[in-house]
Amino acid sequence: MAGMSYTYSDSRSVGATLEGTDPLKGYAENFRYIDMDNGSGTKSFSGTSAPMQNTQISYFGRLSYTFDNRYSVQTNFRADAFDSSKLSRKNRWGFFPSVSAGWTASNEGFIKDNISRDALSFLKFRASWGVNGNIAVLNDYAYSTTVSYNSKVYQWGVTDPTISHGSVPDGLANPDLKWETSEQLDLGIDARFLRDRLTFGADWYNKQTKDLLMTVNPVLEVGAGSSVVNAGSIRNRGVEFEIGWRDTAGDFHYSVNANFAKLSNLVTYMTKQGMQRIPGEGFSNFKSSTAFEEGYPVWYIRGFEYAGVSADGKAQFLDADGNITQTPSSADLKCLGNSIPTYNYGITLRAEWKGIDFTFFGTGAGGNKIIPCVYRTEHPLINSLEYFHANAGKTLPSCKEMASSTDFWSSSANLFDGDYFKIKQLQLGYSLPDNITRKILLGGARFYVSLDDFFTFTKYPGFDPETASDGDYRGMGLDKGSYPNSRKVLLGVNISF
Q1: Do 13 and 111 reside in the same domain of the chain?
Q2: How many angstroms from the chain centroid is the CA of residue 492?
Q3: What is the domain extent for residue 198?
Q4: Which secondary structure element, helix H or strand E, spans residue 406, and what is its range?
Q5: Looking at residues 167-175, what average pLDDT do you find?
Q6: Residue 64 contacts by C-beta under 8 Å, 6 or more apart in sequence?
């Protein structure tokens, strides 16, 4: 298979308003337009925008081959290019190959002839490698820059009041800006046993993302705004497992499915263009924040390491050399943990008996840390200061000392595990028998009651560890009072004809 695609978009806009107590000739749907004014209102135009035109062209192809239902190979290739609003002419093309192969071992003679299908129904080994690209964050000629004409003023002398105007670039041009690319290797296995009642799947993957596109701010001496650069490389490596069981005993049907995934990510390289560390998100006057730095997890949490209470009741911390101090400096900030969960898992149970059905669905995650930034004292049971009140004067300083210490709130004393398990759904249903639905001219009718997001098991003192973030990808691990998933009780009916 081979093909190509070409996309062209052209957008233009104009803004206008009409204000008045009774400005239109009529208010039926076909009168609700600016040019249907009756002359009593005030009409204004906000102007038109410059035309925005974008083009994209792609070439792609695929070649696949299967032999004897045992061996399969597939190769893919695509080349993509955008107009000059994304990248310069010399870097606009991206080339992305991939290849995958599979071996269905269960169809080999030495397995079929020696192992019963009742024991081993299916066994397949998989491997794939591929490259993909990303420039979605680029627009408006990010590799270039514009100059703000006479946007700055300067007074040359203390005694001379004359003001001189000057023009400055809005950012730093980067004509070498190019595609962000990700190269991934995946190895996997799929298996079914006992007449397909038991299923198992496992994957190992290693993903290397390089030429990462990021917006950075140059040092103040440059005098220019932010610019986009290919800032570094990231390695994401992990494993995923799935296992399932389904069976029938008379009129009783049931199934159990579970999955588990483990992720390890690391910033393996950062450009040396004056960037040792890219600051992420923080909160108020907290000295803790997220950060992006070579040799550490992606957007790790950075803060002071809490070391208990001194004899005089004050908070203590470990400095960069591992010594106790009560007055830490910015040089003592260190990695306190991952802001992104390092593992997640889920389980689904389904059962059915004579029209009655039951579903249990739960998910969990962990391995990450969360900084609760906003406490709601009007909620005595959740997201409160109860933990700090209970431990004040023991493992923590007094409430008075804590309240006035920014260093304390910027330390691991205000850092909690983000581990949780949540029952996302408990549902019980009943389907009317066919002989009843036929009499009332229905194809089927099912009644159900469901509890969604109703139970959460966690030691995190905040609202909801699942949604604890500031809404920005750089701010995972900072709970700024994000709205939790609501608990829902649902009563419903499904009817088919």
Answers
A1: no
A2: 32
A3: 55-496
A4: helix 406-409
A5: 83
A6: 72, 73, 74, 75
